[in-house]
Hints:
- Helices cover 52% and strands 17% of the residues.
- It has helices at residues 3-24, 27-42, 52-73, 96-99, 104-112, 115-127, 131-138, 142-155, 165-180, 183-189, 210-216, 220-223, 267-272, and strands at residues 84-86, 190-200, 203-208, 226-230, 233-239, 245-254, 257-264.
- The longest helix is centred in the N-terminal third of the chain and has 22 residues, at 3-24.
Amino acid sequence: xxxxxxxxxxxxxxxxxxxxxxxxxxxxxxxxxxxxxxxxxxxxxxxxxxxxxxxxxxxxxxxxxxxxxxxxxxxxxxxxxxxxxxxxxxxxxxxxxxxxxxxxxxxxxxxxxxxxxxxxxxxxxxxxxxxxxxxxxxxxxxxxxxxxxxxxxxxxxxxxxxxxxxxxxxxxxxxxxxxxxxxxxxxxxxxxxxxxxxxxxxxxxxxxxxxxxxxxxxxxxxxxxxxxxxxxxxxxxxxxxxxxxxxxxxxxxxxxxxxxxxxxxxxxxxxxxxxxxxxxxxxxxx
Length: 286
Protein backbone atom coordinates (compact mmCIF):
# COMPACT_ATOMS: atom_id res chain seq x y z
CA UNK A 1 0.00 0.00 0.00
CA UNK A 2 1.58 3.27 -1.09
CA UNK A 3 1.88 6.15 1.32
CA UNK A 4 -0.09 8.32 -1.10
CA UNK A 5 -3.06 5.94 -1.14
CA UNK A 6 -2.94 5.65 2.65
CA UNK A 7 -2.98 9.44 2.93
CA UNK A 8 -5.91 9.62 0.51
CA UNK A 9 -7.83 7.12 2.61
CA UNK A 10 -7.10 9.05 5.81
CA UNK A 11 -8.47 12.18 4.14
CA UNK A 12 -11.72 10.26 3.54
CA UNK A 13 -11.88 8.58 6.94
CA UNK A 14 -14.01 11.18 8.74
CA UNK A 15 -16.59 11.28 5.93
CA UNK A 16 -16.74 7.49 5.74
CA UNK A 17 -17.12 7.24 9.52
CA UNK A 18 -19.95 9.79 9.40
CA UNK A 19 -21.74 7.83 6.69
CA UNK A 20 -21.46 4.55 8.59
CA UNK A 21 -22.47 6.20 11.86
CA UNK A 22 -25.64 7.69 10.41
CA UNK A 23 -26.55 4.41 8.74
CA UNK A 24 -25.84 2.27 11.81
CA UNK A 25 -26.34 4.70 14.72
CA UNK A 26 -23.26 3.33 16.49
CA UNK A 27 -19.77 4.80 16.71
CA UNK A 28 -18.27 1.38 17.45
CA UNK A 29 -19.94 -0.25 14.46
CA UNK A 30 -18.95 2.70 12.25
CA UNK A 31 -15.31 2.35 13.26
CA UNK A 32 -15.44 -1.38 12.45
CA UNK A 33 -16.97 -0.68 9.04
CA UNK A 34 -14.34 1.92 8.15
CA UNK A 35 -11.55 -0.40 9.26
CA UNK A 36 -12.96 -3.18 7.10
CA UNK A 37 -13.11 -0.75 4.15
CA UNK A 38 -9.43 0.01 4.70
CA UNK A 39 -8.58 -3.70 4.71
CA UNK A 40 -10.47 -4.24 1.48
CA UNK A 41 -8.71 -1.29 -0.11
CA UNK A 42 -5.35 -2.68 0.96
CA UNK A 43 -6.13 -5.89 -0.94
CA UNK A 44 -7.34 -4.02 -4.03
CA UNK A 45 -5.24 -3.02 -7.03
CA UNK A 46 -5.53 0.75 -6.71
CA UNK A 47 -4.84 1.17 -10.42
CA UNK A 48 -8.25 -0.39 -11.17
CA UNK A 49 -10.12 2.22 -9.08
CA UNK A 50 -11.18 5.18 -11.19
CA UNK A 51 -12.98 7.10 -8.42
CA UNK A 52 -11.59 6.30 -4.98
CA UNK A 53 -14.17 8.38 -3.09
CA UNK A 54 -17.05 6.65 -4.87
CA UNK A 55 -15.42 3.24 -4.45
CA UNK A 56 -15.01 3.74 -0.71
CA UNK A 57 -18.57 5.01 -0.31
CA UNK A 58 -19.83 1.92 -2.11
CA UNK A 59 -17.74 -0.40 0.06
CA UNK A 60 -18.81 1.31 3.29
CA UNK A 61 -22.43 1.22 2.14
CA UNK A 62 -22.32 -2.50 1.36
CA UNK A 63 -20.60 -3.40 4.64
CA UNK A 64 -23.10 -1.27 6.56
CA UNK A 65 -25.94 -2.98 4.74
CA UNK A 66 -24.58 -6.37 5.83
CA UNK A 67 -24.47 -5.13 9.44
CA UNK A 68 -28.08 -3.90 9.23
CA UNK A 69 -29.26 -7.21 7.80
CA UNK A 70 -27.48 -9.08 10.58
CA UNK A 71 -29.27 -6.87 13.11
CA UNK A 72 -32.64 -7.76 11.61
CA UNK A 73 -31.94 -11.41 12.29
CA UNK A 74 -30.45 -10.55 15.69
CA UNK A 75 -31.99 -7.23 16.82
CA UNK A 76 -29.42 -5.07 18.56
CA UNK A 77 -30.17 -1.37 18.30
CA UNK A 78 -27.25 0.70 19.68
CA UNK A 79 -29.27 2.60 22.26
CA UNK A 80 -26.24 2.81 24.52
CA UNK A 81 -25.14 5.89 22.55
CA UNK A 82 -28.30 7.88 23.28
CA UNK A 83 -27.40 10.71 25.67
CA UNK A 84 -29.95 11.02 28.49
CA UNK A 85 -29.45 13.78 31.05
CA UNK A 86 -31.59 15.25 33.80
CA UNK A 87 -33.46 18.28 32.45
CA UNK A 88 -32.27 21.13 34.65
CA UNK A 89 -33.52 23.80 32.28
CA UNK A 90 -30.08 24.62 30.87
CA UNK A 91 -29.64 25.00 27.12
CA UNK A 92 -27.73 22.10 25.53
CA UNK A 93 -27.00 24.01 22.31
CA UNK A 94 -23.27 24.21 22.95
CA UNK A 95 -22.86 20.55 23.95
CA UNK A 96 -20.63 19.11 21.20
CA UNK A 97 -21.15 15.54 22.35
CA UNK A 98 -24.90 16.00 22.23
CA UNK A 99 -24.73 17.50 18.76
CA UNK A 100 -22.94 14.37 17.52
CA UNK A 101 -25.34 11.98 19.19
CA UNK A 102 -28.04 10.08 17.35
CA UNK A 103 -31.42 11.18 18.66
CA UNK A 104 -33.79 8.58 20.08
CA UNK A 105 -36.61 9.67 17.78
CA UNK A 106 -34.46 9.26 14.68
CA UNK A 107 -32.92 6.01 15.87
CA UNK A 108 -36.26 4.41 16.71
CA UNK A 109 -37.69 5.45 13.35
CA UNK A 110 -34.60 4.25 11.49
CA UNK A 111 -34.87 0.93 13.31
CA UNK A 112 -38.38 0.60 11.87
CA UNK A 113 -37.02 0.88 8.33
CA UNK A 114 -35.84 -2.07 6.33
CA UNK A 115 -32.05 -2.18 5.73
CA UNK A 116 -32.39 -1.09 2.09
CA UNK A 117 -34.78 1.76 2.98
CA UNK A 118 -32.48 2.96 5.71
CA UNK A 119 -29.38 2.91 3.55
CA UNK A 120 -31.09 4.67 0.64
CA UNK A 121 -32.49 7.40 2.90
CA UNK A 122 -29.28 8.08 4.80
CA UNK A 123 -26.99 8.05 1.78
CA UNK A 124 -29.20 10.24 -0.39
CA UNK A 125 -30.92 12.60 2.05
CA UNK A 126 -28.06 13.07 4.52
CA UNK A 127 -25.00 12.67 2.28
CA UNK A 128 -26.30 13.51 -1.21
CA UNK A 129 -25.05 10.26 -2.73
CA UNK A 130 -26.58 9.93 -6.23
CA UNK A 131 -29.33 7.34 -6.64
CA UNK A 132 -27.35 5.65 -9.40
CA UNK A 133 -24.58 4.90 -6.90
CA UNK A 134 -27.04 3.82 -4.22
CA UNK A 135 -28.67 1.48 -6.73
CA UNK A 136 -25.31 -0.22 -7.36
CA UNK A 137 -24.76 -0.67 -3.62
CA UNK A 138 -28.22 -2.21 -3.20
CA UNK A 139 -28.07 -4.25 -6.38
CA UNK A 140 -31.32 -2.64 -7.54
CA UNK A 141 -32.46 -0.29 -10.29
CA UNK A 142 -32.18 3.48 -9.87
CA UNK A 143 -35.98 3.71 -9.82
CA UNK A 144 -36.14 1.15 -7.01
CA UNK A 145 -33.53 3.06 -4.99
CA UNK A 146 -35.56 6.27 -5.38
CA UNK A 147 -38.70 4.43 -4.25
CA UNK A 148 -36.93 3.07 -1.15
CA UNK A 149 -35.71 6.54 -0.13
CA UNK A 150 -39.13 8.06 -0.76
CA UNK A 151 -40.82 5.39 1.36
CA UNK A 152 -38.34 5.99 4.18
CA UNK A 153 -38.73 9.76 3.92
CA UNK A 154 -42.45 9.48 4.64
CA UNK A 155 -41.64 7.76 7.93
CA UNK A 156 -38.85 10.06 9.05
CA UNK A 157 -39.71 13.56 10.24
CA UNK A 158 -37.12 16.32 10.29
CA UNK A 159 -35.61 16.45 13.81
CA UNK A 160 -36.35 19.54 15.86
CA UNK A 161 -33.57 21.58 17.47
CA UNK A 162 -32.51 20.90 21.09
CA UNK A 163 -35.12 21.53 23.74
CA UNK A 164 -36.16 25.09 24.47
CA UNK A 165 -38.69 26.49 26.91
CA UNK A 166 -41.55 26.34 24.37
CA UNK A 167 -40.88 22.68 23.60
CA UNK A 168 -40.81 21.85 27.30
CA UNK A 169 -44.10 23.69 27.82
CA UNK A 170 -45.77 21.77 24.99
CA UNK A 171 -44.59 18.43 26.38
CA UNK A 172 -45.72 19.39 29.88
CA UNK A 173 -49.12 20.37 28.49
CA UNK A 174 -49.36 16.97 26.81
CA UNK A 175 -48.44 15.10 29.99
CA UNK A 176 -50.90 17.15 32.05
CA UNK A 177 -53.68 16.53 29.54
CA UNK A 178 -52.86 12.81 29.59
CA UNK A 179 -53.00 12.80 33.38
CA UNK A 180 -56.36 14.59 33.39
CA UNK A 181 -57.80 12.55 30.54
CA UNK A 182 -58.43 15.78 28.62
CA UNK A 183 -58.91 14.45 25.09
CA UNK A 184 -59.52 17.82 23.47
CA UNK A 185 -56.41 19.33 25.00
CA UNK A 186 -54.37 16.34 23.83
CA UNK A 187 -55.54 16.98 20.29
CA UNK A 188 -54.52 20.63 20.55
CA UNK A 189 -50.88 19.81 21.37
CA UNK A 190 -50.55 16.89 18.95
CA UNK A 191 -49.77 17.41 15.28
CA UNK A 192 -52.54 15.81 13.16
CA UNK A 193 -49.92 13.51 11.61
CA UNK A 194 -48.08 12.73 14.85
CA UNK A 195 -46.23 9.41 14.90
CA UNK A 196 -45.82 7.33 18.06
CA UNK A 197 -43.22 4.56 17.87
CA UNK A 198 -42.63 2.21 20.80
CA UNK A 199 -39.74 -0.26 20.84
CA UNK A 200 -41.04 -3.22 22.84
CA UNK A 201 -39.65 -6.72 23.54
CA UNK A 202 -42.01 -8.01 20.84
CA UNK A 203 -40.93 -5.47 18.22
CA UNK A 204 -41.90 -1.98 17.12
CA UNK A 205 -45.43 -0.69 17.69
CA UNK A 206 -46.41 2.29 15.53
CA UNK A 207 -49.46 4.51 16.05
CA UNK A 208 -50.25 7.23 13.51
CA UNK A 209 -52.45 10.32 13.82
CA UNK A 210 -53.46 12.58 16.69
CA UNK A 211 -56.79 10.88 17.33
CA UNK A 212 -55.24 7.42 17.53
CA UNK A 213 -52.37 8.56 19.74
CA UNK A 214 -54.69 10.49 22.07
CA UNK A 215 -57.16 7.61 22.25
CA UNK A 216 -54.93 4.58 22.49
CA UNK A 217 -51.68 5.73 24.07
CA UNK A 218 -50.95 5.07 27.74
CA UNK A 219 -48.69 7.60 29.41
CA UNK A 220 -49.30 6.93 33.10
CA UNK A 221 -45.67 6.04 33.78
CA UNK A 222 -44.41 9.02 31.77
CA UNK A 223 -46.62 11.41 33.72
CA UNK A 224 -44.92 10.43 36.96
CA UNK A 225 -41.45 9.98 35.51
CA UNK A 226 -38.38 12.15 35.71
CA UNK A 227 -37.99 14.97 33.23
CA UNK A 228 -34.91 14.46 31.08
CA UNK A 229 -33.32 15.48 27.80
CA UNK A 230 -33.04 12.56 25.40
CA UNK A 231 -30.52 13.41 22.72
CA UNK A 232 -31.39 17.05 23.36
CA UNK A 233 -35.16 16.58 23.09
CA UNK A 234 -37.55 16.89 26.04
CA UNK A 235 -38.38 13.48 27.46
CA UNK A 236 -39.27 11.38 30.47
CA UNK A 237 -37.75 8.33 32.15
CA UNK A 238 -39.96 6.10 34.28
CA UNK A 239 -38.89 3.33 36.65
CA UNK A 240 -40.49 0.27 38.22
CA UNK A 241 -40.77 0.01 42.01
CA UNK A 242 -37.60 -2.10 42.13
CA UNK A 243 -35.60 0.70 40.49
CA UNK A 244 -35.23 -0.88 37.05
CA UNK A 245 -36.13 1.38 34.11
CA UNK A 246 -39.63 0.97 32.69
CA UNK A 247 -39.49 3.30 29.71
CA UNK A 248 -37.76 6.24 28.06
CA UNK A 249 -39.86 8.63 26.00
CA UNK A 250 -38.66 11.48 23.77
CA UNK A 251 -40.87 14.13 22.18
CA UNK A 252 -40.22 16.07 18.98
CA UNK A 253 -41.97 19.46 18.90
CA UNK A 254 -42.32 21.51 15.72
CA UNK A 255 -44.22 24.81 15.53
CA UNK A 256 -45.79 24.31 18.96
CA UNK A 257 -47.10 20.77 18.37
CA UNK A 258 -45.76 17.30 19.05
CA UNK A 259 -44.90 15.65 15.74
CA UNK A 260 -43.13 12.55 17.00
CA UNK A 261 -43.11 10.48 20.18
CA UNK A 262 -40.39 7.83 20.42
CA UNK A 263 -40.40 5.39 23.30
CA UNK A 264 -38.25 2.46 24.38
CA UNK A 265 -39.91 -0.14 26.59
CA UNK A 266 -37.64 -3.10 25.84
CA UNK A 267 -35.85 -4.02 29.12
CA UNK A 268 -32.76 -5.29 27.27
CA UNK A 269 -32.29 -2.03 25.37
CA UNK A 270 -33.14 0.06 28.41
CA UNK A 271 -30.45 -1.79 30.37
CA UNK A 272 -27.87 -0.77 27.76
CA UNK A 273 -28.65 2.93 28.17
CA UNK A 274 -26.84 5.23 30.59
CA UNK A 275 -29.85 6.63 32.47
CA UNK A 276 -30.09 8.96 35.47
CA UNK A 277 -30.72 7.41 38.86
CA UNK A 278 -34.40 7.06 39.83
CA UNK A 279 -35.75 9.59 42.31
CA UNK A 280 -35.12 8.64 45.92
CA UNK A 281 -31.72 7.01 45.29
CA UNK A 282 -28.34 8.55 45.97
CA UNK A 283 -27.85 11.29 43.39
CA UNK A 284 -31.37 10.74 42.15
CA UNK A 285 -33.28 13.58 43.72
CA UNK A 286 -35.49 15.57 41.37
